[in-house]
Amino acid sequence: MNPVDVKLVVLDMAGTTVADDGLVERAFDAAAGALGVEPGTPEHARMAEHVRATMGESKISVFRHLFGEEEKAQRANLAFEAAYHELVDGGLCVALPGAAEAIERLRTAGRRTVLTTGFSRSTQDRILTALGWHGIADLTLCPAEAGRGRPYPDLALTALLRTGTDSVHEMAVVGDTGYDMLTGTRAGAAVVAGVLTGAHREERLRADGATHVLGSIAELPGLLLG
Fold first, then answer.
1. Are 108 and 142 in contact (CB under 8 A)?
2. Do the Cβ atoms of 191 and 1 come closer than 8 Å?
3. Prediction pTM value
């Protein structure tokens, strides 16, 4: 495929453009503790493994799977968000090297860019504020604004519709998890690129449909712009 054909780039945040550095798992520990699940127990280990395996998925969906009851899932989600916000406000949320420059280069070259997340809108906005990234992309989306989160295609397809992009064949989806890759393949994206700065390794990214695997987001303009 000629790289010039890509007109829309749908980018994940944590692990792809924003450093995670274990923040999700730290916030999960707080959420689990709020529901009485203590670190070091078999139940905690089982839940933590599920969180790692489903990185990129809507967080409320993860908690619904883990705790079953909607009331418990909502409590866990609120505790998770409070803990994550505290970490972000504490200065622990930073952009990955080259991320802002890559987005700027893509937009300068006429590519529309959309930042997506598995977090809620309030958490996404907290991250954008911490980084000074409001306005860095053409659009930002969270699962509640698209219908379903990853691994469903909704976020990518909503980005396509909201930006007025003509075809899925003009879209690239980029992320650090297998669920990002599934989102891209299910949405029919021409490029589904995995990066190795986040949750999952190349084997998982390839298995879930990556057409390309990059060391980091800094390599993306070279892939898409030639």
1. no
2. yes
3. 0.90
Q: How far apart are CA 121 and CA 44, in angstroms?
A: 27
Question: Are 152 and 46 in contact, with CB atoms under 8 Å apart?
Answer: no
Give the Cα separation of 41 and 97 in Å (integer): 36
Q: Cα angle vertex 164, ends 147, 59, to 5°?
A: 25
Single-letter residue type at 79: A
Across all residues in the chain, what is the average pLDDT? 93
With a cut of 60, say whether residue 8 has pLDDT above it.
yes
**Cα three-residue angle 166-145-140, rounded to 5 degrees:** 65
Please state, in angstroms and rounded to a whole number, the distance separating the CA atoms of residues 111 and 9.
7
Q: Which DSSP symbol is given to 95?
A: B
The better pLDDT of the pair 137, 92 is held by: 137
User: Distance (Å, rounded) from C-alpha 84 to C-alpha 88?
Assistant: 6
Mean pLDDT over residues 97-119, rounded?
A: 96
CB atoms closer than 10 angstroms to residue 100 = 16
CB 198 within 8 A of CB 11: no
3-state SS assignment for residue 173: strand
Per-residue pLDDT of 179-220, as tens digits, reads: 999 999 999 999 999 999 998 999 999 999 999 999 999 999
